[in-house]
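User: Hi! I'm working on a homework problem where we have to compare a predicted structure to a textbook description. Could you give me the structure for the chain below?
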Amino acid sequence: MHREQITVRFSPMKRIVSILLVSFSVSLVAQNLTERKPVSFSSEPSSIEEFKTIQLATANSPEGAAAMLVLAMSMYGKNPELGRKAIVLSILSKNRQKSNKPTAVDGVDLGGSDSYLLGQLDKYKMLPNGYWKGAEPSNGYTPSLPLTVETYTNPYSGDETSGKLKLFVATKGASSYRPVSVEKDTDGLWRSKEMSSLFVGMMPAK
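Assistant: Happy to help. Predicted structure tokens:
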């Protein structure tokens, strides 16, 4: 039986794109990651009340909790005072501490073990934008629009129905995606519980 040989020719650019797509797919398979629903924001809030409104509509899922923390970090990069309060609201309530300081929001502030994380944002200027889709060292960590956060789980992430889940936040600024543990809070919203890995430095912008 005669078999025809089919030859597919790619242009150099298509070949490069194909290689990148294959490499990305292989990377996800190697890490055994499963994508969650991406979370997008049309813009960043300009007040803490606006942040609360967005959180109420977004943090009803584990990936929504991770996205709210990324949003808060991004806000911190532009307005540290507002961003700090947003970060406080993104963290599980039992991890906060009562406070009447100006940095507090609704009578609570970051716990001592989390306060140092803000210093990381001050030190690594790429972090506030580093977890947005499209942001990478080669473009100075400039995100695509709308602002989008992509998260993944692996076989050891846990069961969402338990009220706890470990997610991996996509980034082009590191060799692997960064883990964040989220938990369902007493008010029914999901918030970040352990997120120190998101505050580790990234590759410098080129």
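For your comparison, note the following. DSSP finds five helices and nine strands in the chain. Strands lie at 34-35, 39-41, 96-98, 108-110, 147-149, 151-153, 164-169, 178-184, 190-194. Good luck with the assignment!
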